[in-house]
Amino acid sequence: MLYVNTEVNGTPVKAFVDSGAQATIMSPDCAMRCGIMRLMDTRYAGVARGVGTAKILGRVHHAIIKIGGAEMPCAFTVMEGKDVDLLFGLDMLKRYKAKIDLEKNALCFEGIEVPFLHESEIPRSFEEAEMNEPTVAGPNGTEIGTKTGAVRPAGATASADHSVAAGPSTPQVHSQPQPAASAAAGKAPEGTSSSGSRFAEADIEMLVGSTGSSRAQVIGALEAADGNLDVAASILMRFDDY
């Protein structure tokens, strides 16, 4: 992950540089800290759809951001559901002709080189949220995060769970399962399809036919979308990018 130190309206913010994001995004909490929430245009409120959904609160059309020694105007989309304070997206990278130079390990623009932060300086909240977020099955055994869209190798989630389990042991309290709970667990929920899924067979077949995805991917997308066909279709369309 590539982070740089910035200042927005005089407030220090660690920005995640992401050329894969179309817009520059700020969390509501960060906008409050920077004192620019009052500038938000709520006419731009809506819902962002991709891998998962996020609520867009509005847009700040103009605020000053300082990167390195340069100060420049910047526009921010204020969005919930992101685990980063500020995501510096492609819109601002193109506007200021910025270049991600991995050889120099820096963000370069207008003759300025801003070094990317060392791993020890990167906020841990994003990494922790990324590892704990729900995933859906992707192509070739990969897993795709429903919030960040991050693609992980097969078994990455299981490996992370194993690492947590292998940590220092803590006292465990074991209780006998209640008979009623056991009976409920063994009872199939009503309305399930013949394959054991809780979703209608017609919906599964429709998404398989319209997206070309596998049955497992369709069921995973429906689980992530809580049964919403439009959101599930959006998730499956995202698979085509990988």
UniProtKB/TrEMBL annotation:
InterPro entries referenced in this protein's UniProt entry, alphabetically: Peptidase_aspartic_DDI1-type, Peptidase_aspartic_dom_sf, UBA-like_sf
Positions of region (Disordered): 130-198
GO function terms (MF aspect): aspartic-type endopeptidase activity
UniProt biased composition (Low complexity): 175-185
Stretches assigned to the Aspartic peptidase DDI1-type domain: 1-101
GO biological process: proteolysis
Pfam family, one: Asp_protease
PANTHER family xrefs: DNA DAMAGE INDUCIBLE 1 HOMOLOG 2 (PTHR15397:SF3), SODIUM-GLUCOSE COTRANSPORTER REGULATORY PROTEIN -RELATED (PTHR15397)
Protein name as it appears in the record: DNA damage-inducible protein 1
Source species: Didymella pomorum
